[in-house]
């Protein structure tokens, strides 16, 4: 029974990273792993928080600076920026970028496709300035 409860509380992939990023965004400046751990509450071990922060650092989602014997962490992007990094990483891992992008575009709902075209037009206009 205890094992079943433990499994049911297990977080989905990326959920903990998202929670840590939310906590960091709510901080009034760089935050320590201990502060993040307290902010998230519950049963998270300090080492788990440090592991998540280190993974986020590897992904470019956070930065860190020395704070005594520890580090203070700051988000380097918002959730949209993190999602965009993930998308670029997947795209960079594919051999046929054109086919992947074409498939992605044709699978978008009309509203998203229209939005993407508008964003591309804005980006092109900004290059011309």
From TrEMBL:
InterPro entries noted in UniProt: BlaI_family (IPR005650), WH-like_DNA-bd_sf (IPR036388), WH_DNA-bd_sf (IPR036390)
Keywords: DNA-binding, Transcription, Transcription regulation
SUPFAM superfamilies per the UniProt record, alphabetical: Winged helix' DNA-binding domain (SSF46785)
Stated family: Belongs to the BlaI transcriptional regulatory family.
Top-level lineage group: Bacteria
Protein's recorded name: BlaI/MecI/CopY family transcriptional regulator
The UniProt record lists the keyword Transferase: no
Keyword Metal-binding applies: no
């Amino acid at each position: 029974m205890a094992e079943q409860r433990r499994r049911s509380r297990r977080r989905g992939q990326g959920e903990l990273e998202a929670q840590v990023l939310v906590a960091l965004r709510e901080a009034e400046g760089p935050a320590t792993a201990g502060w993040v751990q307290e902010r998230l509450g519950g049963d998270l071990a300090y080492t788990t928080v440090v592991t998540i922060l280190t993974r986020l650092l590897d992904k470019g989602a956070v930065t860190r600076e020395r704070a005594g014997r520890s580090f203070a962490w700051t988000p380097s992007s918002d959730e949209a920026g993190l999602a965009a990094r993930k998308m670029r990483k997947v795209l960079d891992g594919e051999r046929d970028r054109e086919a992947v992008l074409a498939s992605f575009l044709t699978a978008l709902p009309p509203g998203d496709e229209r939005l993407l075209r508008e964003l591309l037009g804005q980006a092109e206009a900004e290059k011309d300035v």
